């Protein structure tokens, strides 16, 4: 994968097209993440990453197709997430789409032109328990830093599952969300069965999945798909990220992991993990003192 940094904008831009906020001050200048070996050297990057200060801005970059996902895009999403995981300077991630949409789902026509590529990526990886389709969405949960999706325009099918892989989701009120797979004769299989049932009551998850109906960003927030509604999702996501990174990095990381695991763990296991995390943090505070003092 070629992960390319986006040139910083000289002035502020509206997030309605997935643009980044205005350039950071000199002491938080934009920088690319650690370079990775190109997966598709002859192609333009379909997923870009720019680090501004402590925040990595990851953006789907296939605007002419409403950022519909191709097989190379899935590979690039995973590769970018792995780059971020290796970069200790990144404290939060904002995930967005370039152009008129967040993501219109899988580009099925493109994928089916290479059945061998689909078959290869469909095989699960024993060390993660996911295949490429699932890992492209679930890998964001594996990061120790918070990931915030900024959604505008279409957020359909695989795009919705990608958004659900983030920890938090900020949506434009007029964005269009849909668990669209049954409309195409498929089922959500990019980690969506897990994330939908984590976020929603079972009957609501069934309603959205079985009907494949479209919901607005406003309704998505009301029923629990989205976290917040904003006319400028990227700017709000950045503000939220900046608020989070004011707090202790290790405490935020432990809290994210505890909450993720608590969703499917027994109370006994959760209590044990709480104690272990707190003892780890208390031992560190005993050495370093309280933050800000």
Automatic annotation (TrEMBL):
Pfam families: ECH_1. InterPro entries: ClpP/crotonase-like_dom_sf (IPR029045), Ech1-like (IPR045002), Enoyl-CoA_hyd/isom_CS (IPR018376), Enoyl-CoA_hydra/iso (IPR001753). GO terms for molecular function: isomerase activity. SUPFAM superfamilies: ClpP/crotonase. Residues 1-31 have a biased composition (Low complexity). Residues 1-42 are annotated as: Disordered. Belongs to the enoyl-CoA hydratase/isomerase family. This is Enoyl-CoA hydratase/carnithine racemase. It comes from Micrococcus terreus.
């Amino acid at each position: 994968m070629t992960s390319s940094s986006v040139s910083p904008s000289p002035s502020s831009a509206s997030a309605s097209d997935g643009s980044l906020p205005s350039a950071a001050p000199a002491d938080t200048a934009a920088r690319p993440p650690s370079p990775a070996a190109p997966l598709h050297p002859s192609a333009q990057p379909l997923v870009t990453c720019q680090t501004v200060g402590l925040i990595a801005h990851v953006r789907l970059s296939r605007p002419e197709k409403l950022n519909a996902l191709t097989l190379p895009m899935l590979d690039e999403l995973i590769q970018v997430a792995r780059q971020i995981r290796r970069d200790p300077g990144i404290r939060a991630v904002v995930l967005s789409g370039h152009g008129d949409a967040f993501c219109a789902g899988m580009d099925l026509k493109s994928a089916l032109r290479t059945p061998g590529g689909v078959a290869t990526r469909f095989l699960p990886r024993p060390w993660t328990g996911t295949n490429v389709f699932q890992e492209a969405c679930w890998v964001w949960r594996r990061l120790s830093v918070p990931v915030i999706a900024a959604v505008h325009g279409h957020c359909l099918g695989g795009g919705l599952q990608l958004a659900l892989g983030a920890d938090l989701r900020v949506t434009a009120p007029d964005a269009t969300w849909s668990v669209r797979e049954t409309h195409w004769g498929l089922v959500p299989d990019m980690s969506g069965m897990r994330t939908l049932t984590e976020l929603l009551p079972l009957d609501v998850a069934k309603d959205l999945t079985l009907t494949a109906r479209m919901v607005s960003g406003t309704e998505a927030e009301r029923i629990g798909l989205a976290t917040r509604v904003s006319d400028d999702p990227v700017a709000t996501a950045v503000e939220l990220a900046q608020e989070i990174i004011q707090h202790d990095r290790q405490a935020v990381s432990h809290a994210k992991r505890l909450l993720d695991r608590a969703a499917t763990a027994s109370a006994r296991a959760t209590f044990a993990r709480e104690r272990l995390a707190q003892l780890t943090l208390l031992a560190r505070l005993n050495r370093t003192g309280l933050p800000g003092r």
